[in-house]
Request: fold
Amino acid sequence: MQSPVIDTYHKALNLNLDNSKYGTIAEIGAGQETARWFFRVGAAAGTIAKAMSAYDMKVSDSIYGPCRRYVSRERLQAMLDHEYTLLIERLGASRGGDCAFFAFANTVATHCFTQQQQGHGWLGIRFQATPQAAPSQIDLHVVLKGKKNIQDQESLGLLGVNLIYGAIRMHADPEALLASLLDKLSTDLLEIDLIDFHGAAFDAVDNRLMALRLVQHGMSSAAMFRADGKVIQPADALYKKAVLVERSRFHPPTKLTIDLLDSAYREFREESNIRPADIMVLSEMTLSSLGEGEGIDVDDFLQRAEILCALGKHVMISDYSTFYRLAEYLFRHTHMPVGIALGVPTLLRLFDEANYEDLAGGILEAFGRMFRHDLRLYVCPMRNMENGSLIDTRNLDIPPNLRNLYAHLLEKGHIRGLTTIDSTHLSILSQDVLEKIRRGDREWETMVPEKVASIIRSKCLFNWRAPGSVD
Reply:
């Protein structure tokens, strides 16, 4: 049974009446909306040592030091460093034995009328779980979706109180803490596309799982983490980058999975004349490929993530079941070319009109939205299981009423066949590999890269058991 949601007023009052928690609130860019809640409910002197804003850039730089962008994680970190250090220096000796200190900060740009841009910002809190404990920290990035500044400001105040209350009262249950961030808020007003837990209170937290939870709970449509497991903010990661995405289950990654991405990467780089440093390559898993609703198997997801990270892949999790929504999302963050690596079966599903019944313009509307920018589909051929012949972009059986559309996309280079795939890999299916792993058939080891096989064996992933072992 879920605990009842505590409203913002009572969260702020609860903290104000607790003399064992004491801290600073520093806010830039949208007013002192978080601090205002603590003053509004009364008894703020019990919780707030200092509340401040530094709107002028020179004043801000004189306090926190210069930075390239004022609404950035770099600025958030500088604010938390400065405010938390001052708190400990000034009050540690007199109150540190009885108080657990915290420093909350945000740096935000609300809705821009002149450029019609959504607001966004960084929020964070550094806190002690108990007096004199080593500090822990939560950082998050928020996209503000209000149509007016006042909506963004109100959303920011609610989110700030939820973050402070969650860190102080709920740090022992990070998943519940994450869900509580939207208390009294709506995803119509904001989305959180990054959250990062670190420090002593969160030693057991895997931020890759938290990235999944953001998407699973509808707090964001997509989340990303790097090959080293560090979560990244999508807009920053994709900014001015050409993007190549492979959408798959990666359950597990097979020789064909890796060959497809490598072949697409070579074509994408050469055709776009882009430096490798300017290409962001993503291995994407959708929620539907992980399970449905609350039925997602966390251990299974982390096993897939573990292998992808070990292979040096950056990972994206999304709820974009259709490719046109994925393309729209990527082109919101970059004006560079975007490539998607996929197989013939997926391409055939793209031309299934039943997938677009929710659009007034059907498949034509979907394709118009998908291919309005420089999008290329890199298509891996497949074997006809009945006669062994090769099915590729040149002999695909497209419905008659869509053949002219298909020919047009092929002619314009939006659909490109891959010709460098190792033909011996085309018969490998990830489901076959998974079944062989689970029943102890060692043939699976020949169907995945050696590094993948080594990881599966060493960590006993996907229910693998050493030959002769007993459960």
